[in-house]
Give the backbone structure.
Amino acid sequence: MIYSFYIYDRHCQCIYHRQYNPHEDLNKANDSDISKLLFGVLYSLKNLSGKLGDNEAFNSLRSFSTTNFRIHYLETLSNFKFILISDNSIDNLQNILWELYSVHFRNNIVLNPLSPIDFNEEIIDNVKFVHQTDEYIKSLSVFN
């Protein structure tokens, strides 16, 4: 099961958050401590994995798990960070994160002339992007 989806910009701001719970609204927890704590954990683990492994490896952190959930992580060359939080039984969602970035984010946000270059505490509110990512994630066999 997929629990939530986050996107952070290159300035470490949570610009998109979607909780896959029927009682949660789009971007409701955007300013919450959870998004800040999640980014801090990922930042620390990414630095640790870079120091322990090959320093030349970009995106050396791909996922980590606890007893209850797994966090899947993809950082793009433009420093956008894509995060899916799933059930612990799901192994690898790198291809799904790549699809979310290369198809949905790129086509609806990056190539959209009305989207900001720097979000400066703005959130992604592109209706087409929200609809497409929701439909894509909900269509996955690992969603439920």
The chain is about 35% helix and 20% strand. The radius of gyration is 15 Å.
